[in-house]
């Protein structure tokens, strides 16, 4: 009997720990099962969504094709907005039929508007493809917004494409959401009958285009052009590197410009896809860098010969333009990273690359100054030796 007591105690502890887990699993298999709503709203199923800390709760009447839904998420900042949508034509924002909850009026109470989204801007409130009723929203004491509504779906609907999002409100208007991984990946499929929810893979074509835009510009304006500048400034000091330094310089600049034009073009395309979403400073710097880079390319065809009287002025123009492009390009790359809200490891990687190029430039600056000073000293000795300390007669 005494030997059985430790066993009974262990079983009692195990049962105490396991019981809440069993009840929790029976309620819906996630944190969403513990959610409680006002006005005695109860839903048959729920799922914790994989991004933005959101959850969706629903009751689906298959006979009437009526979907009662509650969406719960925390805005990125106080007074922000939340949105949940069904997309009958795709798996992203374009074509989504959205419910958006945002604060209205001076009291800050939340209200729900519907949006039929075309392209990648929210547009204006209006009717959506699904008749809606019982729209409401409220802000909880935990800072999360709970949005409610009923949608009339097409007969036979079982699985839907869902999209959800959160964002800030600026000046009383809905502002663009962030572009981090959590935001761009906030979409997936939801089976209203079985309750199965799957996340969309890959982040979508728009996210890929934005990443491509960032990579192309970082490699071109942010790495290849500084490398070309290093070749031109430092290697030409060494007589053995002539004319190799020139061809390396031109190769880096032409390849960098070509890749940069591709990155600039993807930026223009992204701007056309994102009507109403404008990053003015990033765009204006990008246009300036492209314009100055194009002028640099044309300047190659107008380069005077080394002994031409205008060569000095051309050199001043070429060098000042080149350094301006490099500086603006690096600044704009960091602006773009902030817009995309990239992970810190990517910022750190680019910072390391720039630091390596900067360290190489500093080392070469010291070395080349040493070479130049030594060469001048040697030339002065030769000059004094041949003239016996006197100025040449020609002078």
What value does the Rg take, in angstroms? 32 Å
Sum up the overall morphology in one term: elongated
The end-to-end distance, rounded to whole angstroms, is: 121 Å
Care to count the β-strands?
A: 13
* Structural class label: alpha+beta
In order across it, which strands form the biggest sheet?
6-5-4-9-12-13
Largest sheet at a glance?
A: 6 strands, antiparallel
Fraction of helical residues: 40-55%
Order of helices and strands: HEEEEEEEEEEEHEEHHHHH
Ranges with pLDDT <50 over ≥5 residues?
1-29, 387-395
Number of helices: 7
Mean pLDDT: 82
**Strand share of the residues?**
15-25%
Report on the architecture of this protein.
With 395 residues, the chain is of the alpha+beta class. 47% of the residues lie in helices and 20% in strands. The protein contains seven helices and 13 strands. The strands form three sheets. It has a six-stranded antiparallel beta sheet, with no helix packed on it. Strands 1-2-3-8-7 form a five-stranded antiparallel beta sheet, with no helix packed on it. Strands 10-11 form a two-stranded antiparallel sheet. Helix 3 packs antiparallel against helix 4 and helix 5 (280-300) runs antiparallel to helix 6 (311-340). The longest helix is centred in the C-terminal third of the chain and has 44 residues, at 344-387. The model is unreliable at 1-29 and 387-395 (pLDDT under 50).
